[in-house]
Amino acid sequence: MASPHTIERQRGAKEAGQQLAVLREKWPLAFPARAQDVRPLALGTVGQIAEAMGWSIPYTIGVLTYWKMAPFYCQAVLSHDQRITLDGAPAEPVDAEAKELAAKQLSKLAARNAAKQAVAAKAKPKTKTKPAPETPAQLRARVRAGLLRRPTPPVRKLRG
User: Fold this and answer.
1) Are 49 and 100 in contact (CB under 8 A)?
2) Residue 25: strand, helix, or coil
3) CA–CA separation, 34 vs 93, rounded Å?
4) Whether the Cβ atoms of residue 106 and residue 71 lie closer than 8 Å to each other
5) 3-class state of residue 91 by DSSP
6) What backbone torsions phi and psi does residue 28 show, to the nearest 5 degrees?
7) What is the C-alpha separation between 106 and 100, in angstroms, rounded?
8) Which residues contact 101 (CB under 8 A, 6 or more apart)?
9) Are the C-beta atoms of 61 and 9 separated by less than 8 Å?
């Protein structure tokens, strides 16, 4: 049986789409709608969010995992050197380990997408090309050829 911590984290991950909309309303600078406006969050924001929203820490981790593992967030970690607080103020710098983890996550997502595309390409049914319609003359010739190939029935001799 899963621990209560795991259950809460999974529940947070499941409800992340709904909860990110709530976070976006409360902290629009930390959770912007446009991907190019995303910045890496300051360390310790999990505790601040949990306290402000009345969520448990595991639930908050589940919600934020959805956000932080997304390609746009990983790109933000790689392209920005400064983290931000929930109100958008500059915080500590992004360290090399965070950049390395973001690069690994992006490569993992790229590999997953490539595998999905390969499966989709194999599963795509090949369209059969229809033969060109026969002209009446071609059809007549084919029927005649078929009739000529048929063996003639044996002739019975009459007893007499």
Assistant:
1) no
2) helix
3) 22
4) yes
5) strand
6) -65, -25
7) 10
8) 77
9) yes
Can you give the pLDDT of all 160 residues of the chain as single tens digits? 689 989 999 999 999 999 999 999 999 999 999 999 999 999 999 999 999 999 999 999 999 998 999 999 999 999 999 999 999 999 999 999 999 999 999 999 999 989 888 888 777 666 667 777 778 888 888 888 877 776 666 667 776 5
Tell me the residue length of the chain: 160
**CB of 69 closer than 8 Å to CB of 105:** yes
Confirm if 42 and 92 have CB atoms less than 8 A apart. yes
Enclosing H/E stretch for 92:
strand 90-93
Nearest Cα neighbor of 85 from 30, 31, 20, 28 is 30
Environment class of 57 (CB within 10 Å of its CB; exposed 0-12, middle 13-18, buried 19+): middle
CA pair distance 160, 153, nearest whole angstrom: 21
Bridge partners (DSSP) of residue 82 are 93
Token duo for residue 43: 């360390």
The closest of 132, 41, 34, 151 to 86, measured between CA atoms, is 41
Rounded to whole angstroms, how far apart are CA atoms 102 and 94?
A: 11
Q: Within 10 A of 29 (CB to CB), how many other CB atoms are there?
A: 14
